[in-house]
UniProtKB/TrEMBL annotation:
Top-level taxon of the source organism: Eukaryota
Domain BART: 16-111
Keywords per UniProt: Cell projection, Cilium, Cytoplasm, Cytoskeleton, Mitochondrion, Nucleus
Species annotation: Lotharella globosa
GO biological process: maintenance of protein location in nucleus
Record carries keyword Nucleus: yes
Keyword Nucleus applies: yes
The protein's name: ADP-ribosylation factor-like protein 2-binding protein
Length: 131
């Protein structure tokens, strides 16, 4: 039974890595850049350099998000066998949580072993004593 879990985990990691790789390729693709530039050129005259935001900014932003999401979703579906936006978003959440947890545990370990670097919290307290 553990072999199945491990194999499934490796398959999910591979799918995640393939998705990230495809995403990188899409974002640097000249066609993607062209699509963004065309959208910006079409809408840039609507914006003004002041503190107040117009309602039209929200509409333009929503259009931009929909455009980018649809292009990314289509491209990722075409490039990555088994891609699912929902699954990818869940993996991102999990990987971010795992990274933060690992950082916190590592920081705690450093603090409890009394290494010269100490913990992040202790470093912040140290900096606070000078302010």
């Amino acid at each position: 039974m553990p072999d199945c879990i491990c194999a499934n985990e490796n398959k999910e990691n591979l799918l995640f890595d393939q998705t990230v790789g495809a995403l990188q390729e899409i974002l640097i693709d000249p066609d993607f850049t062209k699509m963004q530039n065309e959208f910006l050129d079409k809408n840039c005259d609507e914006f003004e350099d002041n503190k107040e935001n117009k309602l039209s900014y929200t509409k333009i932003f929503k259009e931009y998000v929909e455009l980018v999401e649809s292009v990314l979703d289509k491209q990722l579906n075409d490039r990555v066998n088994g891609y699912s936006q929902e699954k990818f978003m869940e993996q991102l959440k999990y990987k971010n949580f795992s990274k933060i947890k690992k950082t916190m545990l590592n920081d705690h370990l450093l603090a409890t072993k009394g290494t010269p670097r100490g913990s992040y919290r202790r470093r912040l307290r140290h900096v606070g004593n000078y302010g």
